[in-house]
Specification:
heterodimer; A: mainly beta; 1 helix; 31% strand; B: alpha/beta; 5-stranded parallel sheet; 15 helices
């Protein structure tokens, strides 16, 4: 899991996965930042599945986006990280 | 109400948009990605600057077209949104769009569906272990997100794209333990020699594959033929790939058995489809102007059958002309003739590639009964086979086992299930009926559908 050189990324930011801080850069998807931090498990039965397609088709990377207003199950491969964003890999809403 | 909604920002959507622009039509393009390009040109986010992005010769023409498209002012770009529904509404169509921010409606007189394809899923032991990805997934990470999504990769499958992906991983600084073709080398060389004329006309593609092979050789990456992937090993994460002659240690396995059309939206709208040869999947039927048998619903690119970016772009161009014709705006036949001629020429190479990459031998094998076929609902091949005596069609098996009832909505398991049913009943897979394509085509919170916003373009 390495970020490729020869690339200038957006500003550094930090979001939260299952309560733990994860570093990312603006423009990265939640899936990218999770993989880059060594997190392989996303959702599926018993939260045991990894990401399969990375193109929005398999829904294997469904995670829960938590805001004060609501919990939304959404595909991590399509969701851009935002500073302070809260993600959970367990617990469908 | 807009005039044309184009679903999909790949080569087919781009050429259609170019053809439709400059005529006072209201055109919008919707895509799940934030930026246009499709899977072939998965663009890095606007926040990134990339030195030498996709420098390969094969990307040149595609990048030039994308650059032309990105400066078209007449096309409204609706990126980062999924089309989850297409339904007839009056003389036109009502599309339902969804993103993490909510759902909305978009009304259009005509629709072009150019949603591309996805990697053919092949159930095999261990394919649910985290660390197994499709080759397309790995490639999209490298192209668009600029990460190598693992340390040590094994690529396994039947499609020559593996060579390109492996070379891109190596160039990006990743390690590739090996590229393993399921089929023997003669299955690739034979058709190429037999169709030398078609091959010679498309030397660029072969040069690209040969260049990738050379880069892999320089990096010391073995490329082997006639070695089926038997199983992926590991418990919580991938630790190896097992072949007949031993185990290769790795932390990622990328599967590359070919591609199947995205078909949910045309099927949902009621368009008729046919089972594709070789890799399978539903291709949408259409006429010479790319119009499906639902009047006003056009299709182009891999939606009509997987044939690559060049053909997708030509079909998108034809669809653009067809849409103009339907909207009463042009004498299009003379413009279409040379496009049709180029389509015929490109078709010979697409057919050759499909024959080379043919996964039929892989799909004909039956993995062990405890192999998961439906990843979402954890349904094994054994559980599905146990229902065969009373459930002889996909719908009945779905009700009996939950196969296909999960969040992928059957996209990952449908083909494998239809092949199981065909094998059990002794019927051809192309005669099987698939799942019923239902709204919504992508997962969306029910609350968002309740609060759906009306079409703001009215």
């Amino acid at each position: 899991m390495t970020r490729i050189t020869g690339t200038t990324r957006g500003p550094a930011m930090r979001f939260v996965v299952d309560g733990a801080p994860v570093d990312a850069f603006a423009g990265e998807t939640v899936a990218t930042a999770m993989l880059a931090s060594g997190r392989l498990r996303f959702g599926g039965p018993d939260e045991s599945r990894g990401l399969l397609c990375n193109m929005g088709t398999c829904s294997g990377c469904l995670v829960t986006l938590v805001t004060d207003a609501r919990r939304t199950r959404t595909r991590a491969c399509l969701l851009r990280v935002a500073d302070g964003m809260r993600i959970e890999t367990a617990g469908a809403s | 109400m807009i005039d044309v909604a184009i679903v999909g920002g790949g080569p087919a959507g781009q050429t259609a948009a170019e053809r439709l622009s400059g005529r006072g039509l209201r055109v919008a393009m919707v895509d799940e990605q934030m930026r246009p390009g499709g899977q072939i040109l998965r663009q890095p986010p606007a926040d990134f600057q990339v030195d030498r992005w996709l420098p390969g010769r094969g990307y040149r023409a595609l990048k030039a077209r994308l650059a032309r498209f990105e400066v078209l002012h007449e096309v409204t770009w609706l990126g980062g949104q999924s089309v989850i529904g297409v339904a007839r509404s009056g003389d036109g169509f009502a599309l339902t769009l969804a993103s993490a921010a909510g759902a909305r409606r978009l009304d259009a007189r005509r629709v072009l569906i150019a949603t591309g394809c996805y990697d053919l899923p092949v159930p095999l032991p261990g394919w649910t272990i985290p660390g197994v990805m499709t080759a397309g997934a790995v490639q999209a990470f490298v192209k668009g997100q600029r990460i190598v999504p693992g340390r040590r990769f094994v690529l396994a499958g039947t499609h020559p794209l593996m060579l390109i992906v492996a070379a891109q991983v190596v160039e990006a600084g990743g390690e590739v333990a090996g590229v393993f073709f399921d089929q023997p080398l003669r299955a690739i060389a034979g058709p190429t020699i037999r169709q030398a004329f078609a091959a010679a006309r498309h030397l660029g593609h072969f040069a690209e594959a040969a260049g990738a092979r050379l880069a892999l050789a320089r990096a010391g990456v073995p490329v082997r033929f006639g070695l089926p992937l038997v199983a992926v090993e590991g418990r919580d994460a991938v630790t190896g790939a097992r072949f007949d002659d031993g185990m290769i240690a790795c932390d990622r396995v990328a599967l590359c058995y070919g591609f199947v059309p995205q078909s949910d939206l045309p099927r949902q709208a009621g368009a008729s489809v046919a089972w594709s040869p070789q890799a399978g999947g539903w291709r949408t039927r259409c006429n010479a102007w790319m119009e499906s048998d639902v009047a006003g619903l056009f299709v182009a690119g891999e939606t009509t059958g997987v044939a690559g970016a060049e053909i997708a772009a030509l079909e998108g161009d034809l669809a653009g002309l067809g849409l103009l014709c339907g909207l009463g705006m042009a004498d299009v036949e003379s413009i279409a003739a040379p496009i049709r001629a180029r389509l015929r020429r490109a078709g010979t190479f697409a057919a050759l590639l499909a024959e080379i990459a043919d996964p039929h031998a892989v799909l004909a094998r039956t993995p062990p009964a405890d192999t998961v076929l439906c990843r979402c609902e954890n349904v094994t091949i054994g559980a599905i086979d146990a229902t065969q005596a009373f459930a002889g069609n996909a719908h009945a098996v779905k009700l009996a086992t939950r196969c296909g009832m999960g969040v992928c909505q059957g996209r990952v398991c449908e083909g494998a299930l239809l092949r199981r049913i065909a094998a059990a009943t002794g019927q051809a897979v192309e005669t099987q009926a698939g799942f019923t394509a239902r709204f919504p085509a992508r997962p969306v919170p029910v609350g968002d559908l309740v609060r759906i916003a009306p079409d703001a373009t009215n």
